[in-house]
Amino acid sequence: MSSSDVAARQRPIAAAPKADTGYPRWFWPSFATPGMLYLLILFVLPFYVILSVAFGKLDPIFQTPVLVWNPLNWDTGILSFTVSNITHTDGIYHAAFIRTFVYVALSMLLCLLIGYPFAYFLSRHAGRTKGLFLALFFAPFWFSYMLRMLAWIGLLQDQGYINRALQDVGLIGAPYPFLSGKSWVLVLGLVYGYVPYMVLPLYAGLDRIPNAHLEAARDLGASPARTFFRVTLPQTWQAILAGLIIAGLPMFGDYFTQQLLANTVGTKMIGNFIIDSLDVPIFVNRGASLILVLMALLVVPIVYYLWSTGRAARERAA
Amino acid sequence: MSADQASVRGPSRRRVRDLLTNPWAKPRFLWVLGIAYVVWTLVPVMTAALFSFNSTRSISIWSGFSLRWYITDPNESVLHDPDLRHAVLQSLKLATGAVIVSVPIGLGFALALDKWRSRASGTANFLMMFSFITPELILAVSLFLLFLNPFKFIGLGTPSQLLGLGLLAIPYAVIIVRSRLLSLGVDLEEAAMDLGASPLQATRRVTLPLLSPAIFASAGIIFAFTLDDFVMVQQLARTGSDQTVAMAIYGAARTAPSPAVNAIGTLMLIASTLVISLAYLVYRRSIRRHGAGFRARRDALPV
């Protein structure tokens, strides 16, 4: 590798292409028009629809939701009903909210504990087999999530391989009912489903650390552990944040993993309540207000993540 | 480090210490973990694929090889069950449509974001990334309400499924094309314009050909992931004819799993693997033609 290659790699995006040389003013913005229209009509407008359903009314005769477009006429009754049912310990959504946060937090933690060492292995120690390991790592991204869950249903059934193996070893006498609403099975299912999304940013972050930094630490007498904690880990905080966000946020909207692996009332998550409410016209407003609450909770991490990745990209470019 | 300790025979404390502190020792622990991870993520899916060849109705007890669930069963095989056959077609239709909708829009958006630096382009980028990171359930339910109420004239069904998948797919195209644009720089385009090309000519004759690997890559990736999308497609489906493969697997897994469902899932798995491999090969070939300096940057990943 030539020295100019090295320089290019370490100082990417040197001068961000300075715009407009010779282009008419309207030229580039016009390229963005279809995309902007798409986002405005199918992302921003639907958000407003959620608001006008959540703050809307019920048709007195048909008991179906009626949208209220004018914010001045919004009725906060349904939202306050929903919020009080979340905050009060005997509310109908209280347990589901607590449960969702516990499940997601546990799953995110497990994803990180599994994903970080694997990403570290992938970026530093896979050696000549790195290409193979990368290909194997990426495979689940284009496997159907449903097929991956179906695979576990087959394995965890009463006559499945796992129960038979445990019985053969003599650990259990009768088949263990894995699929009868066990919280830990659901958490492991979430981990299995989302762990690749954790590894991806971690791998990108770890692979970006220049080897020279690690060699310098070793040359100056740091032990491997010290090198890891003082050099490697601090340079991957941004990647850890990205991993937690990219793997964690979809879990808050997950309802199908619960339905497939632990289909009981006692393991229902927020996503299940949202989906269930859409089936019953009188509950649609409640579903919309649940989405508002969920979004209000998630908007802080989302914006922080977008802001901090923007900053990190600018720092790399500088 | 427990693997290291376990592998030491006749443990002398010094050897253990050497193993733990020697920075050049092979990190066996990490190798074990790396292999265990790959086995854990892939072997269950392999067993699911295996059971699609089962000769009985079970997806957990193996009774022998057969093509019953693919071809031979007169009613329930993928070939003969009209619902499953239709689900395959619907998945392919939606994935193709999503590529056609999202790749051109994403390409234009990426070009604009790359060249047009202003507050408005920053807002556009923020909006796009916001939609990218919002949980799919929230996007799907908001579109569900949109197509049920103000956009009743479109309604639920295949067109709205397609529009929903487009919303999910556009950011992928934008991110992939932008990372390539970042690595290309502006030199060639400026050279073209110095030699008398108009902006449109420079874009069409210089930039677009150089972007072709990124366009192929994003088309492949978008095809593979919209093929397996579940949440969006399920929320925006109206009748049974809108059912896709992911929905068929989900429905069967909740009620009566049968190896035919494993078979249809395996077929989709093969289809997306083929598409991804093809996209990767095309990408590699066109990257090679332009030399190592044009390698796309992982720095452009939203990390």
CATH architecture field of the domain at 92-279 in chain A: Orthogonal Bundle
Helix content range of the residues of chain B, please?
over 70%
Q: How do the strands of the widest beta sheet of chain A line up side by side?
A: 1-2
| Strand-residue proportion of chain B | under 5%
Task: Give the tally of β-strands of chain B.
Answer: 0
Briefly note the CATH topology name of the domain at 92-279 in chain A.
MetI-like fold
Could you walk me through the main structural features you see in this protein, from its secondary elements to its overall organization?
The complex is a heterodimer of chains A (318) and B (303). In chain A, helix 3 packs across helix 14, helix 4 (94-125) crosses helix 11 and helix 8 runs antiparallel to helix 11 (237-252). Chain A is built from 14 helices and two strands; from the N terminus they run H-H-E-E-H-H-H-H-H-H-H-H-H-H-H-H. The longest helix of chain A is centred in the C-terminal third of the chain and has 34 residues, at 284-317. Chain A is mostly helical. Chain A has a two-stranded antiparallel sheet with strand order 1-2. In chain A, a hairpin with a 6-residue loop joins strand 1 (57-58) and strand 2 (65-66). Chain B has 303 residues and is an all-alpha fold. Chain B folds into two domains: 2-51; 82-300, MetI-like (MetI-like fold). Chain B is built from 13 helices and no strands. Chain B is globular, with a radius of gyration of 25 Å. The model of chain B is unreliable at 1-8 and 291-303 (pLDDT under 50). Chains A and B meet through helix 2, helix 4, helix 5, helix 6 and helix 8 of A and helix 3, helix 5, helix 6, helix 7 and helix 8 of B.
